[in-house]
Amino acid sequence: MGRELFLDFFTEHEVPVIRKRRHTFLKMDDENVYILKEGVVKVSVLMRDGREFNIAYLKGFDILSMFKDAVVDCKFSSLMIRVESDEASFYCVSKELFNQLLNEHTELVEYVLS
Fold first, then answer.
1. Burial of 21 by CB count in 10 Å (0-12 exposed, 13-18 middle, 19+ buried)?
2. SS3 of 64, please?
3. Which alpha helices (DSSP H) does 1-114 contain, by range?
């Protein structure tokens, strides 16, 4: 249910889709929310001593910016999102538009938090 509401909203507002090839990285900024549309990505953090710590492998629809927000509060140097499938696509939606969606559809807040 939540996924379909997001997809309808993104289509209606012509939210841009970013496509990346295997073993490339997604660079996220602070003004937008990034959502994995299709594909497989590896979410990891680069620790200050140079080691990489893998957090998760994600497939399909998932909100990647929530990982970034969580890592900011930790003692890691950076979050890395690397494409593991042949290709992956991502929605890039402004935080303002994303929050508008959540305000219009309060049932999505629970979906996002889960």
1. exposed
2. coil
3. 2-12, 65-72, 95-104, 107-113
> pLDDT tens digit string along 32-79?
999 999 999 999 988 878 888 899 999 988 888 777 666 655 665 678
- Residue 58 one-letter amino acid: L
pLDDT by residue (tens digit) across 78-104?
A: 789 999 999 999 999 999 998 888 888
Could you tell me the two tokens for 83?
């494409």
Helix (H, G, I), strand (E, B) or coil at 82: strand
Would you tell me which CATH number, out of the four given (1.10.630.10, 2.60.120.10, 3.40.50.300, 3.20.20.150), belongs to the domain 2-113? Answer: 2.60.120.10
